[in-house]
Write a structure and sequence with these properties.
By secondary structure, the protein is α/β, with parallel strands linked by helices. It is 34% helix and 23% strand. It contains 10 helices and 15 strands. Helix 1 crosses helix 3 (107-118), helix 4 (167-178) runs parallel beside helix 5 (190-198) and helix 4 crosses helix 9.
Length: 329
């Protein structure tokens, strides 16, 4: 369950006049099942969406504490695992986590967060635990976080542009859809497009290589060309290489990739061509279309995670401020 789904559920509850609490994982000792900044929404009736601990008993305790906070109309912190007063609840690997239960976030703030996300802009929910206020942060890099304040960042949904044809292109689109990507497939193969569309991808028919109209490409988009006839590649690559995509890959052998780079060099694109992954995918000995798709998705994931995209920002001195604000029991 991703954080955006949690926020959408929280907004839906609030628009139906259902009191809610937004629970955020703000600190962990060692490893934990969920990353910092992960969230859960809980209603006054005990309904919930999301998981912060990966264990049923611990999540049930979170729901119990959140309902109590809603009834009291007061925010609180909750310690679970190592160092918690709830001695019978243990987390994996003996870790401990601190959770902030917030009963005060409003529908307008939630709507702003979701509007920014839908516009493919990174946005953060800034929570002031002392003043019990919220605001949305859209600037990157953002200003320094004050003591007693934390920011939960939300990034645009990862998107994959597949341009090509054949079983490998189809498998990549299907695996990416199953992995939560927004997928767009461009291909001259109408039958492949129909199958990809049924799997959940957006599809566009290509009639000529020069007919590719490159969509807007941002830093949360990956692109992969997957043609057997590599004459289709050059117009596509020329349109994509100057973009901000976090990953660009091209299918083919090492020999084919060397020829591809030579052709790009002749076009004066030698510098930007260095960011092109080829042959696309990690070397895992992949042979079948599904294995090739997994190898490419793994390399995409590696490229995406190599950039600093923190989910929770507490600043250099915020930890002491949070303790003073009562976030650490």
């Amino acid at each position: 369950m991703d954080g955006v789904a949690v926020l959408r559920a929280a907004l839906d509850y609030q628009r139906r006049n259902v009191a809610t609490a937004l629970v955020t994982l703000i600190r962990r000792d060692g490893s934990a099942p969920r990353p910092l900044g992960s969230q859960m929404v809980v209603t006054e009736g005990g309904e919930c969406l999301g998981s912060l601990t990966g264990t049923g008993c611990a999540d049930s305790m979170i729901v119990h504490e959140a309902c109590a906070a809603i009834n009291e109309g007061a925010n609180r912190t909750l310690r679970l695992g190592n160092g918690s007063p709830y001695l019978d609840i243990r987390l994996p690997c003996g870790t401990g986590v601190d959770l902030y239960i917030d009963t005060g976030i409003g529908a307008r703030t939630l709507a702003t967060l979701l509007d920014e996300h839908d516009a493919r802009r990174p946005v953060a929910l800034e929570t002031d635990t002392v003043a019990c206020t919220h605001r949305c942060i859209t600037d990157q890099p953002a200003s320094k976080v004050r003591p007693g304040v934390f920011r939960s960042w939300i990034y645009p949904r990862q998107r994959l542009i597949v341009i090509g044809l054949g079983l490998n292109a189809l498998a990549l689109s299907q695996v990416a859809v199953a992995s939560g990507y927004s997928v767009e497939v461009f291909s001259p193969d109408q039958e492949m497009l129909a199958t990809a569309g049924r799997a959940g991808a957006n599809i566009t028919r290509l009639t000529t290589a020069n007919g590719f109209v490159c969509p807007a490409l941002d830093a949360w988009t990956a692109g992969v060309t997957m043609f057997h006839d590599h004459d289709w590649e050059m117009p596509v690559l020329r349109a994509m290489l100057g973009s901000r995509c976090f990953y660009l890959g091209a299918l083919g052998s090492r020999k084919t990739h060397a020829q591809r780079l030579a052709a790009l060099n002749d076009l004066g694109l030698a510098d930007v061509a260095q960011r092109l992954h080829g042959p696309a995918g990690l070397d895992i000995g992949a042979q079948s279309p599904s294995e090739i798709a997994l190898s490419i998705l793994a390399e995409m994931t590696c490229a995406y995670r190599s950039s600093d995209r923190t989910l929770l920002d507490m600043g250099e001195i915020a930890e002491q401020g949070v303790a003073d604000a009562g976030l650490v029991p």
